[in-house]
Structure formats: C-alpha cells, structure tokens
Design goal:
The structure holds two protein chains of two kinds. Chain A is mostly helical. Chain A is 64% helix and 4% strand. Classes of the chains: A mainly alpha, B alpha/beta. Chains A and B meet through α13 and α14 of A and α2, β6, α3 and α6 of B.
C-alpha cells in the first residue's frame, strides 16, 4: 500500500543533543549510586552500634573484705545460720533476696548452702561497676583503668565479649553476668517450627490453587484482592486476632488441657502453640503472594508442552510447574519466615512472658522470644543490660543469616537442574 | 478432493472457535488425510494456530476459549462429553513454535511423557532405554546427544531443542502430530533439518503444520489449506487442495495474490 506522501522527499533536521543526554544519564547514575551508598552507610552504622555494645571493658567489683561483715567481732565463718541470713538480707537488693527465697527459703537450707550464698552474693557479689563500649575500650583504655582505680580500688577491669557460648546456652537470669538467651532462643526456634509447619503447606497450597486452578471469576478476584490487602495489615492486628482466637477461644486446645498435658487449673492459652499459629496467620498473605509470583514466573510454554504430551493438570503442576517454581518458592518462604522471627508486637499482645528461666519443653509451654528479650533488656536503665541486648541482637542476626544461607543452598541445588 | 473416509485422520465440521465474544474461526470444514503432510498457510491473525490447537483441544487451556462444531478423529468427535482431553492430546501430539524442552535431562525429556502414559517394558517390548533411543533416532537427534543424555535439555541449540521436542512427542506414540510454526525460531540449516524430518515422519504419522513460510509449505506438504479473514477478523478457509495445485493453479484470486506475494 503506497501512500501519496511517500513520493515527497523530506529532509529532517536533527539538533545535536548527545552531550546533554549523556549528562542526564550520568546524573541518574550518580543518584542511584548515592542511594545505594546511603543504604550501605545505614547498615554499617547499625552493625557498628551493635558490635560496639557487644564487646568492651567491664569493671567488676568483687573484692570485699570478709572481715567487714563480721558481726560483734565474730567472723562470718563462725556465725550461725540465722545471723548469716540477716547478713544476706542486709547486703543484697530486695529483689535478689526475694529471688533467693523463691528458689528455696533460706531458713530451710543447710548452713553450708547459706554460707555459700553469703560468699557468692555478699562477699564476692561480682557487682558490675562500669562498662565501656568497644571503641572507647580500645582508645581510652589507660584513662578507664585510672578512673576505675580511683573510684573502686577493689575492682578488676577486664575485656569482655558479651556474646560467648555461655551466653547462648545459659537461661535468663537476673544476674547480668549469668544471663543468657537460651530460653528466648529455644522459644523463637519452637515458634518458628510451628509457623513453618502450619504456614508452608497452607500457603503453597493456596497459591497453587489461585494460580493454577481458580477460574477468573468474581469470587476468586475478591479472594485475591483480600490477600493482597491482608499482606499490608499491621502485625499488631494479627496479635489481636491470635489473642481472640488461639489464646481465648481455642484455649483448651492451645493450653494443652484437652490432651491432659497440663494442669487444667493453671493452664492458659499463652503458649508456644498460640504464638506459632498467630505468626503462621501473619505470614500467610505474604507467603501466598510470593509463591504465586514464583508460580507465575514459570513459562506457559512448559505447561503447554506437558499438556501436549497427555499430561493431566496435576502431573503438569507436580512435574513441571513446582520444580521450576521451587527456587522462587523457597526465597518467598524464607523471606516470610525471617519476618516472623523478628516479630515482636503480636507476641506481646498474645502474652509472651518477659521473664522465664525454664526451657520451653512442649508446644504448651509459656515462652519468650529473642526480639522480646532484646526489647526487655534495652528498656532497662542499667548500662550492662544494653550490652547483653546487643549480644542478643547478634544471636538473632546470626540465626537469620544461617536461615538465609540454608535457603540459598537449597535454591542453588534446585536451580542447577 | 478427499473422498474415502478410511484415509481421513481428522475431519473438522462447521468448526467455530470463540475467544469470549470474538469469533476467531468461522465455519471451517476440513479433512486431513492420513500419513500426509498438510500445511496451513495464511496471513497473521487469520486463525491458523487456533484451528490447529482446536484439533487436540489445546485451545481449552485459554480460559475464555470456546469451540463449536465437530472435530472428528477416527470417526469420533473429540469434543464429545465423554472424551477425555488428556487422551486426545496423547494421540494427537503437538510441537510448538518456540522450542520448549522441559527443565530435565535429555533422557527424561523423552522418557517423561512415555512413563506418564503408562509405558511398560516386557518380553518382546522395548525397554525405556531402547524406546528413548528409538525416538531420538527418529527425530534425527541421537547421534548428536547419545553421549550427553544426562545433560539438561536446555543445554542444546535451538534446532536440537526443537528436534528434542519432536522426539518427546513421538515417545507417547501419537497418530497425528500438530506443528505450530516449528521452524520459525530457527536458522535456515536447522529449518532444513526439521523439514527433512517432517517428510520422514510422514511415512508413519499424520502431520499438520502451520507455517508462515510459503516455500516451506511448498517443499514439505502434500496438501495445503489457505486461510484468510473477513472484515470482522474471523478466520475462514479459502481454499484447500493438493499443494501442487494450490501453488500452481489456485482457484481463488485471494490464494493467488497471497502466494505470489501480492497480498494486502
């Protein structure tokens, strides 16, 4: 089809604009690089703050002359039990004394035990009189030593790593030097296990249904829209939901009372099971959307190839769609699980304990988790709690990193095929 | 033209295909002879692929698609209620425009479909290894891949991938093979190989090929169907006959214009 204008010869004029186009291009490049740099700086600052708090000098005052506790000239080795208890009550904090009484009333203990308490908590109480962050510890070491020498002549100053194997394996304690994250770590791991077991099958199943089976009708569009919206709902709302459904409504189930595993008079629904189920519901929308994305990324030509050979819909999904979507599904799953590990607000709402010293040993145990433990320690006034909070943050970060590493390994294994 | 029923593999009667409200194919009557190569040619958008895909119910995978009329395969309407589309697609295989090997090994690409459809070895029957080799030989690919059967099907070149797709189609023992522009994504040498393959396969299988390339249709096919579309963009069959007749003495002016390149 030839048009009449084709016959007229037009000579177009092009203005040279290459330098200005290049300038614009490099401006954008600089901006993008800047935003990446800002992100890196923020990340570095975060790590700096945490690491700075997690290591450093500590001054511990633990040399008290036992003679100073002598009562009426009688040395403590020769005091009777009653007087020793009085010495303890006089010299430790009220809270510490109540805790000792709670562990086992002092009057019921043997003299040797009470004497040991006096030695541990009164004569050598290991009081932390000062902590310094890493950078300061390295740069101002002499000044710090002099300062401590002047104010606490008995104190020893040593370089401490707040995060060490003992920190990970010790349970929660009111003594900062003894305290660890074992309880919180176990709580986090158990809750995440329940979340994974519940959320993964439901999430992947729902995503398969929505992508492969659901026809494009009013109902399914509504479901899809709602899932997208639910992904943006604040996590505390899920906490309220968990409180209403799992903690209150399903209390016989989530407390374990229905299985006769717990004492029905003290059982309540604020358990690991409730927390895991709440987090499972919390991550479901994001998980479904991520898995849908992964399934959608599988080229349609593969499905056609399978159908063309006489594959049924399920054979097509199982043999071609899922294996090809697997790397994406794993990535989505790990992103969701990582989010769940860091969640604090919904667990506070459903009633995580802030101070428990015993290990959670079943889905029906009371629990605390790493983020809650960190939150609790950072809100304390004493500086040394901030140090163990930083150490706990490092533990949490390592947990997340190892999870992500597992995901990357799995993903590489699948995508090599 | 085509008279004896016994030599007819596929027969379309009054076939209409709709995408939603849009009629893509209008009143097609077409009889495909057994063990011959039939080419479907025509301008873009005239419904060639749609017709081809309605021959093994692949069109149903498009959510809004709907077919009316009959497609008789061995005398049975494949759109009958009691006919399972999965069985239809096993017996009427399909090779697609873009090579789409599975993300599995070369061996598995061929074996998967056979295993899926209940392949069993036994006395006097080929084992899976023999069957895979047989199919790869038929697709003229064996010599190129016999030392790397465990490698991914995606590691092959485009032309090899397409022959792998043909091999895996042969592996489920179809009677008809539908090819939707099987060489349009390939270079001339790979194209030539596919064309030679079609000629060889026609000794055993009925082949229907959609192509944009008229030389290809002239080279490989025994029969040619020319499709065009009318003003409401619905495709219809303009002329159908032996390839030599269509290309030398077309009965219809539109066919002649298209074949001589004066189309549009």
């Amino acid at each position: 089809m030839s048009t009449p204008t084709g016959r007229i010869r037009l000579t177009p004029h092009f203005e040279s604009n290459l330098p200005s186009r290049n300038r614009k291009a490099s401006l954008w490049q600089v901006l993008f690089r800047l935003s990446t740099t800002i992100g890196m700086i923020v990340l570095a600052l975060l790590l700096y703050t945490v690491v700075n708090q997690a290591f450093g000098l500590v001054a511990i005052d633990n040399k008290v002359d036992p003679a100073s506790f002598a009562v009426d000239g009688v040395q403590i080795e020769e005091l009777d039990q009653e007087t020793l208890i009085a010495v303890i009550e006089e010299n430790v904090s009220k809270g510490k004394f109540r805790q000792l009484e709670r562990e086992q009333p002092l009057a019921e203990r043997t003299w040797e035990e009470v004497y040991q308490v006096v030695i541990d908590d009164v004569v050598e109480p290991k009081d932390i009189v000062g902590t310094w962050p890493l950078v300061e510890s390295l740069t101002r070491k002499e000044e710090i030593l002099a300062e401590v020498e002047q104010e606490h002549p008995q104190a020893t100053v040593e370089f401490t790593s707040w995060i060490d194997p003992q920190f990970v394996t010790s349970p929660q304690s009111s003594d900062v030097l003894e305290a660890g994250v074992r309880t919180a770590l176990l709580g986090s791991l158990l809750i995440i296990a329940i979340t994974i077991v519940v959320a993964l099958p439901i999430g992947i199943g729902a995503a398969i249904y929505l992508e492969e089976y659901a026809s494009d009708n009013w109902l399914n569009r509504t479901i899809q829209t709602n899932i997208n919206n639910l992904a943006g709902v604040p996590s505390i709302i899920y906490g309220m939901l968990g409180l209403a459904i799992f903690v209150r409504m399903l209390e016989p189930l989530t407390s374990g009372a229905i299985f006769g595993l717990t004492d029905p008079t003290t059982a309540n629904g604020r358990t690991i099971l409730s927390a895991g189920l709440t987090l499972a519901i919390l991550v479901l929308p994001v998980l479904i959307i991520n898995v849908q994305e992964a399934i959608r990324a599988v080229p349609n030509s593969l499905r056609e190839g399978s159908y063309g050979l006489g594959g049924t819909q399920w054979q097509t999904i199982w043999h071609h769609v899922l294996p090809n979507a697997m790397p994406g599904i794993l990535t989505g799953a790990i992103l969701s699980i990582s989010r769940a590990i860091g969640e604090t607000a919904p667990l506070v709402v459903i009633g995580a304990a802030t101070y428990i010293t015993f290990d959670p040993d079943s889905p029906f145990s009371k629990f605390t988790t790493l983020p809650i433990q960190i939150y609790q320690w950072t809100s304390r006034a004493q500086g040394e709690y901030h140090n163990i909070a930083a150490a706990a943050i490092l533990v949490l970060l390592m947990l997340l990193l190892s999870l992500n590493a597992t995901a990357i390994l799995l993903r590489n294994r699948y995508s090599r095929k | 033209m085509l008279t004896s029923d016994s030599i007819i593999a596929i027969q379309a009667h009054n076939l209409n295909v709709f995408y939603g409200d849009f009629r893509a194919v209008k009143d097609v009557d077409l009889s495909i002879e057994r063990k011959k190569v039939t080419a479907i040619i025509g301008p873009s958008g005239c419904g060639k692929s749609t017709v081809l895909r309605s021959f093994n119910r692949m069109n149903e995978l498009v959510p809004s698609a709907r077919s009316e009329g009959q497609v008789l395969f061995m005398g049975q309407n494949i759109y009958d209620r009691q006919v399972d589309p999965v069985e239809v697609r096993r017996r009427i295989g399909m090779v697609f425009q873009k090579p789409n090997p599975f993300t599995k090994s070369i061996y598995e690409n061929v074996a998967w479909g056979a295993r899926l459809n209940g392949f069993k070895d036994g006395i006097g029957k080929p084992s899976m290894d023999e069957w895979v080799e047989h199919c790869l030989r038929k697709a003229a690919l064996w010599d190129e891949v016999k030392d790397k059967l465990t490698q991914s099907g995606l590691s092959l070149s485009g032309g090899q991938q397409q022959r792998l797709c043909i091999a895996r189609t042969l592996a489920v023992s179809p009677e008809v093979i539908l090819m939707d522009e099987p060489a349009s994504a390939l270079d001339p040498i790979a194209t030539l190989k596919i064309e030679e393959l079609m000629r060889e396969l026609a000794e055993e299988y009925t082949i229907i090929v959609v192509t944009h390339n008229m030389q290809q249709a002239a080279r490989v096919s025994d029969y040619t169907a020319f499709f065009s579309m009318n003003d409401d963009r619905a495709g219809y069959l303009v002329e159908y006959g032996p390839t030599t007749q269509i290309f030398t003495i077309p009965q219809n002016k539109m066919t002649e214009d298209y074949i001589t390149g004066r189309f549009g």
